[in-house]
Structure formats: C-alpha cells, structure tokens
Amino acid sequence: MLPHLLKYASVFLLSMVKFIGGPVTGAAAGLSFAQTLALTVAGMMTSVAVFSGVGRAWAAHLQRRRRLRHQPVFTRRTRTIVRVFQRFGISGIAFLTPILFTPIGGTVLATMLGVRRQQILLHMFWSALLWGAAFTFLSIKFSHLPIFHR
C-alpha cells in the first residue's frame, strides 16, 4: 500500500512544481493513463488554487525586491509576456503555463496581470486537462525508451 501512495504522491507533488514531471513520473512508475492524468491535473490545480490566493502578496514582494535591486520593470521577457496577454488574454497565459512557465509561475503571472481568481482557476483547469492528456499520452506511449528506465 505504501509504495502505491509514494507513486501517487510523487506524481502529484512533481505536477505542483513542474507540470511535465508528473506525466513522466507516472509513466515511469507504471501508473495508468487515468491515474497519471488525474494526479497531474490535481497537482497543478492545487498549486494554482494556493498561489492564486496568495498571488497578490507574492507579486507585491517581487515588485519590492525588483525596486530594491534597481532592476528594470520591463525586460525582453516581460515585454513578450505582456504582448501575449494583450493579444490572447488569460487563455494565452494558461495555454503556455504548462509548457513555458511552471504552474506557480503562470499563476503568479496571471495574478500580476490583474486577472480575477475565478478566471485563473477556470483557464488553468482546461489547460491542465489539455496538456496533461497530451503529455500523459506521450509519456506512456514512449515509456519503453531508455530515458524512462534507469
């Protein structure tokens, strides 16, 4: 029983921090598609729920730290993010979160851009389902490759 719980916990916890880690770990642990997908989506959405709640405080902390270090407000990266947000809104940020940002980074980013918590949760959920299904399918499909076995 404990080994199964450790497998589930590892997929869940990795998905909270780095989204693609969940499907890869699930495939390596021999979990089914449904188990891996459910744990991956649950892990990302747990991060999103927590950080969308504390996101404003975290954003204020980052802004204070940037001012203290005399770092520029707009960098090449932040300009690109703002451009994506202006063009595609929260849907664009949510779509890119699992592949470019971490669940934590995408949520804090959306919060800093002034998106309401309900919108963040909704859009991150469909993004987690979409990318979770894709990454889980690919991880299971190619789990026979040597990178999954040590």
What does this protein structure show overall?
By secondary structure, this protein is mainly α. The protein has one domain (2-148). Helices cover 77% and strands 0% of the residues. The chain has 7 helices and no strands. The protein has helices at 2-17, 21-29, 33-53, 55-68, 76-96, 103-112, 117-141. α3 (33-53) packs parallel to α6 (103-112) and α5 (76-96) packs across α6 (103-112). It is elongated, with a radius of gyration of 17 Å. The two termini are 23 Å apart. The model has no long low-confidence stretch (mean pLDDT 88).
Are there runs of 5+ residues with pLDDT below 50, and where? none
Report the sheet with the most strands, covering strand number, pairing sense and barrel closure.
Answer: none
Shape: elongated
How far is the first residue's CA from the last residue's CA? 23 Å
Structural class: mainly alpha
Characteristic terms for this protein:
150 residues; mainly alpha
Summarize the structure.
The protein has helices spanning 2-17, 21-29, 33-53, 55-68, 76-96, 103-112, 117-141. It is an all-alpha fold and 150 residues long. The radius of gyration is 17 Å and the shape is elongated.
